[in-house]
Amino acid sequence: MEDYKYLFKVVLVGNAGVGKTCLVRKFTQGIFPPGQSATIGVDFMIKTVKVDNDKIKLQIWDTAGQERFRSITQSYYRSAHAIVLVYDVASQPTFDCLPEWLAEIESYANRKVLKILVGNKVDKDDEREVPERVGIDFSEVNGFDYFLETSALDATNVDNLFEHVARRLTNSMKATDQSSSRYSNFKTDHSIGVQPVNLIERAQQTVNSCCGRTCRLGSHFILARAEHFHTMKTIGQLVCNLSSRLCTTLYEFSIGAANHGVDTGTGVGKTSILQRYTQGFFHHGTLATVGVDFKVKTVNIDKDRVKLQIWDPSGQERFRSIVHLYYRNAQAVIFVYDLTHQRSFDRLPDWMDEVERHCCGRVLKILVGNKVDEVQDREVPTVVARDFATANRFDYFIETSALDSTNVDVLFQQVAQRLRDELRAPIVRYG
To answer: EC (predicted)?
Structure first.
């Protein structure tokens, strides 16, 4: 029987043809298979590596990138310790699909999974379509733990990739082991009848029995001593309260994928509007957004709770290749200009063209003139902007001030109301 300290499950995902299978076979078998056919479903290889003096076994899963296998491959995310998202540096469309893969990872993988972004086929330098800097920026903006470029053909960085994964996971596991040792006094003691109680499981049962539906509450397990059962009772009461709140919600709208892009040139106040609405303050001297940021806020529309995921992309030219990826799943796009700056208004047609190219399907379009508090410096009259909104078929026009909060809440209430009204068709009732 092979001796090893840890076994980790590593899952490779990404579009078909980006070279996932070739990376796995180069690392595990040392070969590059010419004319490799597309993976059908899921395949896996095993390789043992050394991290310091420890033997670490990597179980590397190679998933199909084709759409027809997605329902199969999603099930392999749940128990993954690391997910390696691969794109082809010589194929822009494979990079453009990364937000979709990220959304899938967020939906199905463990919250603490190690996320690695890999640009493969770096040997095709003459055919490169995705600059390395763009990959680095996307990685940083989206919270990846590591980024590098590889070539399965000439083995560039292939060993580095998997050895880095093994080291990161090993260090994390050792830290967990050390932390767990501090709770040794909570071990089961059969002599006095003290048993570990899984509070999350108990809470899950309570919610399911109340709501008649499955709600995943979490994956952290808590140990409680029997003599501290009054704590369990208190937590149980809290869970029952949560269950009651869930069950009294007549309608639930899933708007988690609604990326409300706030667009236009740098310095118009997009970030300030977002901070004012989600955090209730105005920060003087806010720095330009680097890449993309987002905030989440839940609002009540009549008796419905609507969750808004509000994305704040950079207006700087160097981030445009990243920003347009976030248009694809948007349900509303807010075009912001500075009404004291004519040039920001004049650039609106450019932003409209970009949204038209990259958005999919029907999208709610809102035009916002910001900085209405600077009355003396106004360069764009309200009537001019309103006519522009009407001529270009915007769904709504409003002027705001992030500084004194004029119309900021009204803006997002309108967005939520209109989206809610459009999404009312498939109503899910509970209770």
So the answer is: 3.6.5.2
Q: Which two tokens stand for residue 240?
A: 């029952």
Give yes or no for residue 323 having a pLDDT over 60.
no
CA distances from 201 to 190, 218, 229 (A): 21, 9, 15
> Going by DSSP bridges, is the β-strand pair 42-51/54-63 parallel, antiparallel, or unpaired?
antiparallel
Taking the C-alpha atoms of residue 123 and residue 332, their distance in angstroms, rounded to an integer, is 39
Residue 302's Cβ-side half-sphere holds a number of Cα atoms within 13 Å equal to 9
408 token code pair:
């900021």
SS3 63: strand
- Residues 363, 330: contact at Cβ < 8 Å? yes
CA distance 353 to 359: 10
Tell me the C-alpha distance between 235 and 260, whole Å.
Answer: 36
What residue spans of 248-377 are helical by DSSP H?
A: 270-279, 320-323, 342-346, 348-358
Pairing of strands 304-313, 292-301: antiparallel
Which residues does 388 contact at the CB level (< 8 Å), separation at least 6? 345, 348, 367
Dist CA 393 CA 370 (whole Å):
19
Q: Say if CB 42 and CB 90 are below 8 A apart.
A: no
* pLDDT exceeds 80 at position 372: yes
Residues in the chain: 431
CA–CA separation, 325 and 292 (whole Å): 10
Query: What are the angstrom distances between the C-alpha of 57 and each of 32, 68, 348?
Result: 22, 30, 54
**Nearest-CA neighbor of 366 among 256, 263, 297?**
263
- pLDDT tens, position by position, 253-275: 222 222 344 444 447 888 888 88
Strand-pair partners of 419? none
72-84 pLDDT tens trace: 455 667 788 999 9
Give all domains of the chain, ordered by start, each with its CATH number: 6-172 (3.40.50.300), 246-424 (3.40.50.300)
Sign of the C-alpha dihedral computed for residues 49, 51, 56 and 57 taken in this order: negative
Long-range contacts of residues 33-40, Cβ cutoff 8 Å, at least 24 apart: 38/64, 38/65, 38/66, 39/63, 39/64, 39/65, 40/64, 40/69
Only one residue has tokens 């007549």, namely 250
Q: Are 219 and 400 in contact (CB under 8 A)?
A: no
Q: Bridge-partner residues for 55, per DSSP?
A: 50
